[in-house]
Amino acid sequence: MLALPIVGVSAADLTLRSAELSPEQALTRMIGTADARVSQSHMSGPIYQSPDGTRSLPVGGYKDYDPSKATREKPEPVESLLPPGAQVLKDSTGYTKVRTTHGLLDTQLRELDTHSPLVKGMITLNRGQLPEAPGEVIATQAFLKESGLFVGSSVTPRGATSPYKIVGAYELPDELGRPEIIAPPGTLIAPLNKALTASGGRTVTADDKYLVKVGGAGVTWDAVQAANTKGLIVVSRAVVLHPPADSEVPLYRNEPSAKSERDGNKTVQMAILATVVGLAMLEICLLAGPAFAVGARRSRRQLGLVGANGGDRRHIRSIVLSGGLVLGAVAAVIGTVIGVLLTVVLRPVLEESLGNRFGGFDFRPLELVGIALLAVVTGLLAAIVPAVTASRQTVLASLTGRRGVRRANRVLPVIGLIAIAAGVAIALYGTTSDLGSTVVAGGSALAELGLVALTPVLVGLFGRLGRWLPLSPRLALRDAVRNRGRTAPAVAAVLAAVAGTVAVATYQQSFDAQMRHEYRAELPHGTGLLTVRDNSAYKEVPALREALAKELPLVQRADIDRLVVGKPGCESFSSDPGCGRIELITPKEQRCPLYEDVKGIEAFSEARRKELRQDWRCQESRYGTEHSVLVGDEKVLSVLAVTDPGSVAALKAGQAVSFDKRQVKDGKLTLRIITKQGEDDVMRGRYDETPGEDKVLSVHLAPDTTQNWGVELILPPAAAKAAGLATAPLGSYFGLDGTASSEQRQRIAGEIDRMGVESSLHIEAGYQGDDSLVMLALAVFAGLVTIGAAGIATGLAQADAEADLKTLAAVGAAPRVRRTLSGFQCGVVALMGVVLGSAAGILPAIGLRLTEQRQAEALYRESIEQGLSTMTESVPFVPISLPWETLAGLLVVVPLGAALLAALVTRSSGALARRAAG
């Protein structure tokens, strides 16, 4: 019991310390043997950066920064900005999908000369050889595992005209789970982009970094700052190993928050760690205390002899405390040794779980000794109460085995009541305090500790129920009440575990009820939408539609297309050459004034904002979709449950249907074809200056009450063709005959996977909570702790009451009485702990929910007062919902299971022996 936590903590300490790399080891995995790694910041103009290169921002901050310059101004090539004579190695990466035996896999493509000495330490070749010729690649172990490929097989990035042979397997020491393939420079990304350009697909955007070797003292902080003036980010070995003072870092001077983010909130982390350690020690003491108590009781004759031979209470206490100290020391040694050995043996498993290789075993003797001392201290603390109790026994009572009359502690219950009252008051205050959840958690913890202190009195109150119980449960209950010294700690241990479980379960159940209320369906119930996620896969849409009709019970299918500007494979908002997009242009007088002013909403007073929020021009739809402009026929309306006769007739007649009255004026709607992104682009809210060709269409406006499910405009194919608009297949809306079974969903998913198409399939089935597994895990955890604590108390009770059991057998009690008594003893302890824990666990959950309700209502009022939302928006709904299923399982199933388990493992009869006199 004492050694088990030490095993876990010592193993965790060695694991985390070994996984925590030294700066030199981290640099080797990042930049190999190079002096620095240089890359573009993708910001126009000079920047500030942190010494380790993980944080940067433009000079002057983001307030006056214009991000559009980064796309309009082409940066200088990094090679031209590097010092002359330096050894430079280019490292290019880009993401795309690669065809595998299972379908498509998101994979990082990388071009790197793996034979260069600068790469040493960045990758580890496990088998095979490094790539040398074009058409050869090496793949990470993670890629081979997920793709089903192997060394010697071929792999083809989607869109490539020829496959690549995998000649070796490697791993990234810091990212074991990353799917990646490496090819020699210029043989992978560039040929793939050429093929994609020829086929109209979207090209891979390469991220270029440069490993630089300059020799001498390396790249100094002054050199890093000089590179920052050219918009470059530098990770320098010399700077990381010997960082400059904070006063010499412009980023920290101009952005103090960057320094605080670097330091992190260590105080909070230490507080959390101390709390966890303290609660763990409390739980162990509550469980181990009764064991020491029974051990002291079994040794009462020896302790009595010590007193008879001149020993006083100090000697008795010292003897019992020494037992706790010795057991704690033994547990410390055993636990630490086992923890270290487990870490050494399970190193490969731990590295795979963490996702990175250890830099080597990092033993911290002082930390391991400190962890071991926890066991010693815990053993000593657990023996304090039994030691004090044993020292108060008279010599005569110890030698004769009589227990004497015990006086109840009158101080502890008073302290417990005060702690409960104070904790409840603090928790309730926290619901109105700005500190919120922190105060609630502190008050709840104090109230729970008070309940633990009050446990002996509460156990005594349970004893009054014994008069109405049959023989065996009455004996069990009275035994538990008479021996509160061993019963109360076990009940308190169960209380602590169950209270945490009930608190989390109540909060989770309440949060789930809130999410269910706030859930907004994306489609009418029982309908679905299948689309391709990648526009370049538009040629695969017809096959997807056929698979849909084959695998699902469709009653209706409405095929939809999207409008295309430029190459059909361009992504919707791509700024690549040859790509464009179509925007719906709202007439100027029908635009929301809040978004038209160049100063934004801050240009309006709160009263004016509040007034404008009620304006119909500023009413936003609650629904959103990536493709709000669709090309389709009246079947789309049928699937979307749009029953307006005018809208259906308009689509049948070849007229477009609009669902947003802000975009329609005099029955006309404007579509702007944008082929080049301007300085004042529509994407930043500036309509008038956006260059493009306008197409004015005659449209039918659907009634305001129509639910559009995020669709703003539906164009019939004939209208799109008449307007000279190009289209490409997108997917299909569909209605189901009933619901799709799990088998049908798996079949369609498997069919799409075999096709190798990245698609999105959504079937609206209403709110689906995902907390059942969490609830089950919490209930199982609480049940195991409860059964364990109750089992320990039952075993101690049997050892302590062996003489009484022999007396029962002597007077002719049936053999089953022994087993039944054992079961009820275990069940009584479990039931008392679960009842008290359930009551204690509800308080923090209610406090947290009330805190969230107050914060949500305050935010709602402030939003209305400042004109950021409308009065018509729903008032925050923050319910408190009790997890009745979890409570039923804890209150009924767990005690019953504990009782049955104890009865099953108890012998029906024991050896009949003469009871000692006295």
Output mean pLDDT: 79
Structural class: alpha+beta
Supply Rg. Answer: 36 Å
Low-confidence stretches: 261-265, 682-687, 911-918
State the end-to-end CA separation.
Answer: 35 Å
Number of strands: 22
Helicity, in percent? 40-55%
The major sheet is characterized as: 6 strands, mixed, barrel
**Strand fraction band?**
5-15%
- Please work out how many helical segments DSSP would assign: 31
Descriptive labels:
918 residues, single chain, disordered C terminus, 31 helices, 6-stranded mixed barrel, alpha+beta, 6-stranded mixed beta sheet, 49% helix, 22 strands
What's the layout of helices and strands?
Elements (H helix, E strand, L loop, with lengths): L2 H17 L3 H9 L4 E5 L6 E3 L6 E3 L9 H5 L5 H4 L5 E13 L4 E8 L12 E5 L7 E5 H7 L6 E4 L6 E8 L8 E4 L5 H11 L7 E7 L7 H8 L3 E5 H5 L8 H5 L1 H8 L2 H33 L1 H9 L4 H33 L1 H8 L10 H18 L1 H8 L3 H6 L10 H20 L6 H26 L8 H12 L1 H35 L8 E6 L8 H11 L2 E11 L16 E5 L20 H8 L15 E3 L2 H6 L5 H8 L3 E3 L9 E7 L18 E9 L11 E3 L1 H6 L3 E11 L5 H14 L3 E5 L8 H29 L1 H9 L4 H51 L18 H21 L14
Commentary on this structure:
This protein is an alpha+beta fold and 918 residues long. It has a six-stranded mixed β-barrel with strand order 4-5-10-7-9-8. A six-stranded mixed sheet has the order 15-18-19-17-20-16. The relative contact order is 0.10.
In short:
By secondary structure, this protein is of the alpha+beta class.
